[in-house]
Structures are given as C-alpha cells and as structure tokens.
Amino acid sequence: xxxxxxxxxxxxxxxxxxxxxxxxxxxxxxxxxxxxxxxxxxxxxxxxxxxxxxxxxxxxxxxxxxxxxxxxxxxxxxxxxxxxxxxxxxxxxxxxxxxxxxxxxxxxxxxxxxxxxxxxxxxxxxxxxxxxxxxxxxxxxxxxxxxxxxxxxxxxxxxxxxxxxxxxxxxxxxxxxxxxxxxxxxxxxxxxxxxxxxxxxxxxxxxxxxxxxxxxxxxxxxxxxxxxxxxxxxxxxxxxxxxxxxxxxxxxxxxxxxxxxxxxxxxxxxxxxxxxxxxxxxxxxxxxxxxxxxxxxxxxxxxxxxxxxxxxxxxxxxxxxxxxxxxxxxxxxxxxxxxxx
Length: 341
Hints:
Blueprint: H1 2-14, E1 27-29, E2 38-43, E3 49-53, E4 58-61, E5 69-70, E6 80-86, E7 92-99, E8 104-108, E9 116-120, E10 127-133, E11 139-146, E12 149-155, E13 163-164, E14 187-190, E15 194-198, E16 206-210, E17 218-221, E18 230-237, E19 243-249, E20 260-263, E21 283-287, E22 290-295, E23 298-302, E24 310-313, E25 319-323, E26 326-330, E27 336-339
Antiparallel strand pairs: 1-27, 2-3, 3-4, 4-5, 6-7, 7-8, 7-10, 8-9, 10-11, 11-12, 12-13, 14-15, 15-16, 16-17, 18-19, 19-20, 21-22, 22-23, 23-24, 25-26, 26-27
C-alpha cells in the first residue's frame, strides 16, 4: 500500500494542475505563411522577433507577428539556420549547422536586406550547434568536440569576425559527448562574463561553465539522462547564479523523465526539482522569476523558478525566447506564437 500511495503522489506531483484562480499562460499563433522548421528564435520585444530555420529561411516581424518578412541570406537555401541572435530590428547574427563548411555565421545590419558571411568552418571534424552573446559586441559559438575537447569561436565585434578559443581552456570531453542543435540554446550567457555549454551523448549529461568570458571552462554533471539521443538540450540562467537545464531523449520523447535540473551556484551543482514536465523538452526561457519550457510534446510553465511545473499547451514548438515579459515560441511547419498572458 505504501508503494501504491508513493506512486500516486509522484503522478500528482509531475502533472499538478494550476492552482485555483491562477490563469495559465496561453500561446497565440502568428501565421507566417511558410512551412520551414524554425529552431532559431530571438525575441527583441513584443513587436520585434526573428526566426531562422530550414532552407536558409529567416523571417522578421516588427508588428507583433501580424506580418512577417522573409529576409534570409542569399545563397543559403541549402543550409539549416539553427540559431539566430538579434540585437534589435536591424542587427542580427545567424548560425548554420553541419559538418565542415556547412557551419557558417552571417550578420545583417539592415534588417536582413543584406548579409555578410563572417565565419565559415574549415575543419571537417567540427560541427557548430549554437551561439550566444554577452552583449551586442561579445559572443561565443559552440562546436561539438574536436580532438577530445569542445571547440568555441569568440567574437568581440558583434559577430563581424571570429577567432578560436584555445583548446587548453576546456576539460576533456567524454566519449560520445556533444551538443544538441535543437533550439539554439545549447550555449547561454548571463552577466558580462559567465557562459554555459549544455551537453549529452556521453555517459553523463553535463554543463560546462566559464566565468571569464569563455577562456576557461569547468564541467559539472547533471541528473538528466544521457545517451546518443539524450542529454541537456537547453540551459538558461536568470542571473549568473540561478539556472535551469532541460532536455530528455528526442528518440523517446514520451519518456517520463525527470529531464529538468536546477542550480543556484553558477552551475557547480544541479538537482532535480520537486515537479517536472513529462517528456522531452528542447527550449527554455526565463520570464522574470518564472520559466517556460517547450518541446514537440507541448509547453510547460513554472511560476517559481523551475521547482513546480504545469502543462499549458499541447502544440509542438522547438524553441522559446523572452525579452522581458514578451515571449515567443517557434517550431515545425512555420509555427510561431506569442505569449498572450
């Protein structure tokens, strides 16, 4: 009987509904008129957002999603633009993924009217997954390990040029360890110097942390499952101390988890929260002290920094991003949505 009661209590904690009187968040779909899959997303404000995805597609809205303009780089139609970081309505940097020269970075300074390729990978062993910026000038782009260590490119001029961070600053990668280019969120920053890389694929799902702008890194284990198809897919920090990691197994997306971990010490230690979303989640964003998570199986909301979660939408999304209280989500078949409350 004690076992039955314990199982029932666990099921209630995992799928606990919103408390009485609480209004859950709600996505409002914003028709884009395209069928590309958008894993890249950058929220600038309630009116301005950028998305990037398959077939070299980049869309931009400046009216809250009422209309979208196709502004992708010319000649990029064969590329997967898995990440985009926008600084405002005119300036943005997007990353294409893939082995060898398929991994590239483009920058625009005029809302996508013109793009300049600022980085092209020439190492056949490298595969770039995601990028993130500390500010409009300094940023990092992450590749899977090369010769046993993760590879990172750094920029100090807003993505106009890049140079490799010395490999000596990284701990050895685990056998099979890599990043997941699922939502553009396998690397994140908080404050002027702290950055984190999310990993999986090896014996342990880890998060690597740098406290000096990306020059030196340390690795910490998380309780998330890890396999060739499982690990940490997204990591997000409210400030340099408080963060959330999320993921699961994309090959078994209905696996119950837990696939969330929390930290309050810059990522040195991670713990499983009391409640957690059920199944694989690929995207993560802070909205004040609350957290949003999305994946192919739905969206979840935590009002208390990741300790308790409630499912509020069953639609498929790959990525989520917030600019203050303005939050956006993107995914398959041209799906883009804005949070209405």
